[in-house]
Every structure is written in structure tokens, then in C-alpha cells.
Amino acid sequence: MSGDLRSEYRFFVNGEWVSTPELRPIVDPSTGQVVARVPDATAAHVNDAIASARQAQAAWGRKSPLERAVVMKRVAALIRRDVERLARIVSIEQGKPLKESRGEVGGSAGFFDYFAEFARRIQGEILPSDFPGEQIWIQRLPIGVVGAIIPWNYPSALVARKVAPSLIAGNTVVLKPHEETPLSALELAHLFEEAGVPKGVVNIVTGSGKVVGEAITVSPDIALITMTGSVPTGKTIMARAAVNLTPVSLELGGKAPFIVLEDADIDLAVRSAVTSRYMNCGQVCICNERTLVHESIYDVFVEKFIAASKALKVGLPLDEATDIGPKVSLAELEKVERKVEEAVTAGAKVALAGGRPQNAPTKGGFWFTPTVLTGVDTDSDIMRSEIFGPVVPIVPITSFDHALSIANDTRYGLSAYVFTNNMRTIMRAVNEVAFGEVYINRVGPEGVQGFHTGYGDSGPGGDDGIHGLETFLAKKTVYLNYSGGQTVPLMPY
Question: For the chain, which ranges sit under pLDDT 70?
Fold first, then answer.
């Protein structure tokens, strides 16, 4: 493993690699052992990064989108060249199985390829004026310096998700990776440098949220804050950004209902529910968090789901046969453990007793095996707050209306799943399931050309596609009068 990592990393500001006396240990969640050390930046380092990004933005923004796209295509090619090494780093620092990490890194390259295609597609508008000899233009321009903050569950893909649209729009970036999983972002910074991204255009600054995150969010020189993470952190960021009226785009998690109706393909629904619940050890904002199954097929579904859960291999992330790796940290492991204990205390039945395995793949790792709960009260905490682990409550429903009442009774509104072959029910789901993403007879991940957005506590804003790109663009309206002053509207005297 050591061959994939540098023993000591530096962060990246204005094209320079910077270190500090204070180094933060990075832990492999499969062993609990330190595998690398990363410097903790100060607020002064963040301000230097913002200043360099602000200085670099004018020249980067003046380049044609096609020139910017050429650099982005080089980034994508370098990521694909190094996909195996980068995937191993994701698995080492975050714990997801290698086969999932390969998909994540491939997705990182995909973001740069996709947004590079907008080189000839960022369009303005020409509107008719109320006066002859005049046109109204709406231009789309770079917004400026983007402050990006990402969580630990997708440490490579989320860098690309924030950086790629920023670059094609002509913006510059100051990005804070999560303090527990900064290695993938720093490795990508090396590729940005190799690809010829100009100095100051992308800055990666490592450290704590209290220092680095706060310095980004309170800066008057940040033109947009884009963040993926928890609801409490999102609310804190929004409050800080309000001081400078800085726009924010927040993706803050979800509590996805997974509705299976009586006419669904039950085997497809089971395979899909298993995938959606256990990918990345359940640490995905669009994961199946509440499985709602029609009572007529409930017993069969639970039996098949438990059998499929038992068949999954919990193992070392770098083992090709592993289906589920460890939780990302001891704190996250203990959080999920508490949620299960509280649910059982509240009356839930343990249909599949998972939890910490007696014979873990390694000592010291943060292991938690698939756990299935039945007999769950729909008002209990485990049905209302995000689990973010390999635990699934399965609840019987009597009808689609019953499912809808449970599904929509949440403060979240990110993703939802419905499995049915009844077209009328499908259309009702499209219209009545109150979530920003609705998957019918399939599960995620979401498509880069779609729009990843949610409602309520899932946060305002969104990522991906043309609608996500709009977040990174400012609009300027120009009233162009070419009549020689003959038709200029004036106040009467």
C-alpha cells in the first residue's frame, strides 16, 4: 500500500506546494493505522489561496472556453492514465472497495470530459427591446472565485464535481477536502499541475473546518460557496455566507425512501435495494435509507433481502472480492452503532444481526456488517434521521398512498426510489413524491448530465448538467442602443 501514497503531503496554493509544522495523521479505516500525514493550514494560508485565485481569475476568465476545455481534457486523460493508483488511494483513505473506487475515479475523469464539452455551449441571449434600434443582451460570465468544501465519502469524484464546472465557466477555485480524506484531492492537484492548469486557478488547502472552512466561508472575496456535507455544517456555512451575501449551493444529505409495490419485479427490487443500501458501506447521500414494501410481498422481500445481504463479502478494500469495506472512522462507526441500539430499545426487531463482526477482516479497523431491522415505528429516529451506514429498516405498506405518506413525511428531499410496473402509479410517483431526484425501477448513481438537487434540509442549489453549471455563471444584462440617440428612452421634462 505504501507505494501508492506519499508519507508526507503538502497542500497546493498558487502553483506551490506548502507545508506547515502542524501535520495531521491520515488513518486507513481498514486497520486504524496512520498511512500519511498532511499539513494543517492556517487562516493566513487560506487567505493567500483566495488572493492567488482572485489574481489568476482575470486571465483564466479571458481565455476562450475552448482553451479552457483543452486543459480540462488533459486533466481527464491524466486521471484515466493513473486510474489504478488513484483508485487505490481512495480505498486506502476512505475504505470503499476497490471496484467502487475505480468507478469513482472514472467518474472524476467523466466530470472533466463532460463539462469541457460546454466550450461551445455556454450561450447568451438576445431579447427584443421595447424601442426600435435597440437590443437587450444577457451574457453568461465567470462568477469569480469559487470556495468549494467537500465531505469524506467521495474524496475524488467530489473534487471533480466542483472543479470541472468552475473551470469551464472561467472561475478559479479554493477547495477544502475533508480533513480525514484529503489525499485524493492532493493527488489530483498534482495532475492539475501536470496538465498545465495555470498557477492560482485551482488551490487545494487542507485542514480543519473550524480554520480552513471558516476562512473560506467568511471571505468577502469568495463569489460562490459550493458545499456537499452535513445539515449542521451547511446551516453554519449559510449563516457565515450571509454576512457578505455570498451565494451558496448546498447538498446536505437525504433520507431516501425505497418503495416496492405489489406488482414490482421483486428480484430486481431486492438487488437494487441491496446495492442502494450497501454501496460505500451505506455512506452515500442517495442511499436507500427507508425500505417500504407492500404487505403482500413483504415476507418474501425480507427473506430475499436478508439472503442477499448475507452473501455480501465484508473485507479489505483492496481485495477485488470485497463488497463492503469499513466505515470511514471510529466516530462514524459508533454513531451507526448507537442508532441501531436506540432503534432496538424503541421496539425494532433485529432480522439480521450485523454490527461489529466477531471475526473482523483486520484488527483495528472500523468494521460494521449489514444489519436489517423490522417492526420499526415510522416515527422513530432511525426512520427520520440519516443513518449513513449498512443498516436498513424495512417497513410494510398497504398501498402507494400509505407509502407516499411515510416517504414525504421527512425534512429531507434529495432522492427517492419507486419500483412498480403500473404506469398510472409511476406517473403519480413522478408528480407526488416530493424529492429532487426520483428513480423509477432503478437506482443511482445519478447521471452527470442530470441535475442533482434536493428540497428542504437536503439544501438549496445543486450539481451536474446544464442546471448545475448555471450555478457557476454570473449573468449580465446589456441594453444596447444603436439608433444614434433617436430612440433612447428619456424621462420627460
Answer: 1-3, 492-493
CA-based nearest residue to 117, from 72, 74, 80, 77: 72
Active-site entry in 187, 251, 332, 437: 251
Do 403 and 357 have their domain in common? Answer: yes
- Give the pLDDT of residue 492: 65
* Predicted TM-score (pTM) of this structure: 0.96
Domain holding 118, by residue range, is 2-252+459-477
Q: Is residue 158 part of a domain?
A: yes
Does any domain span residue 487?
no
Is 492 inside a domain boundary? no
Nearby residues of 370 by Cβ (< 8 Å), 6 or more positions away: 277, 278, 309, 310, 312, 314, 324, 352, 354, 390, 391, 392
Report the number of secondary-structure helices (H) and strands (E) in the chain.
Answer: 14, 21
Q: Is residue 285 annotated as a catalytic residue, yes or no?
A: yes
Answer whether 253's CB lies under 8 Å from 412's CB.
Answer: yes
d(CA 349, CA 343): 8
379: which residues sit within 8 A by CB, 6+ positions away? none
- Please report the pLDDT score of residue 1 as a whole number: 45
- Is 398 within the bounds of a domain? yes
pLDDT in tens, 438-480: 999 999 999 999 999 999 999 999 999 999 999 999 999 999 9
pLDDT in tens, 235-284: 999 999 999 999 999 999 999 999 999 999 999 999 999 999 999 999 99
Which residues contact residue 9 at a Cβ distance below 8 angstroms, ignoring those fewer than 6 apart?
36, 37, 38, 39, 182, 183, 186, 206
Residue of 100, 104, 281, 285 marked catalytic: 285
Active site residue 341: no
361 CB neighbour count, 10 Å cutoff: 18
Q: Map residue 433 onto helix, strand or coil.
A: coil
Contact between 368 and 336 under an 8 Å Cβ cutoff? The reply is yes
The answer to whether 93 and 181 are in contact (CB under 8 A) is yes
